[in-house]
Structure formats: structure tokens, C-alpha cells
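Researcher: Re-running this chain for the archive, since the previous output was lost when a drive failed. Same request as before.
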Amino acid sequence: MTKRTRKRFVAGAICPKCKSMDTIMLFFENNVEKLECVQCDYSEVQTEQQVEKAKRENESVIGVFKPD
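Model: Regenerated C-alpha cells:
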């Protein structure tokens, strides 16, 4: 039996590459948080340690992605 990865869209998020709104999805794969745009090939990853550090720095924020 294959474990399904739960993917969630981020409401109101704008892709840094193609500038499309509501096309960014967030999911975990092998304890790595991934962010992908379904419109273009933009993607970004954060390790569990980076996510935890961002949570501690921004207590009210679930996760923080900092586009380049």
C-alpha cells in the first residue's frame, strides 16, 4: 500500500516566478517541506530544522518561505 502525500494549496499565495495567484501547494515529503507551483516549474524546499527555526522566530506563523 502506497502512502499518499497530503498536498494543500496556500490561499492567496502568489508564485514568485510566474506571479499566478492560488497556484502554490505545500506538502511534506521525507520530512522535507516542499512548495510547488502547479502553473510553472517553480519549487522550493525547507528541511524540518529550517521549519522549526522559523516557527521559533515567528511564534504565530506555521511556516515561513523566503523567496530568493
